[in-house]
Design goal:
Elements lengths: L1 E11 L2 E6 L5 E5 L2 H21 L15 H8 L7 E8 H8 L12 H9 L4 H12 L4
Antiparallel strand pairs: 1-2, 1-4, 2-3
Helix pairs in contact: 1-3
Length: 140
Amino acid sequence: MLSTYPACFFKEQTGYSVVFPDLNWLSTCGETATNAMEAAVDCLAGYLYTSQLENCETPSPSSMNDINPENIAKELDIPFEGAFINMVSVDVTAYAKTHFEKSVKKTLTIPAWLNQLAIEKNINFSQVLQEALIAKLQIH
């Protein structure tokens, strides 16, 4: 199912900032308008996917006519010149299968003695690596 939300794109010195006013000021950015749109799709997909996983309700999207980018720019203290509104659409289920749920095989090397101890303790190597990466990257 396609989900579509309006987003405000603000031209700044280093690229574009993107804000979704309907989604608690969810924001992202990109160096070019194309990069910003790609980031907006990813950002929207991640927000909606996480909301689904956590059984959180998401607000209904506003009409583009109800969004005032000038007011948003003032509130966020960012430049308004060159701002525009665009609808951002994503099929969350399809996007998640490709970007969020797909596993990637990694080959790594550890000392033989450590491998043996882990096998003896029935350690799940994939789970340990995932937990370590999440902790190292400070992902909650």
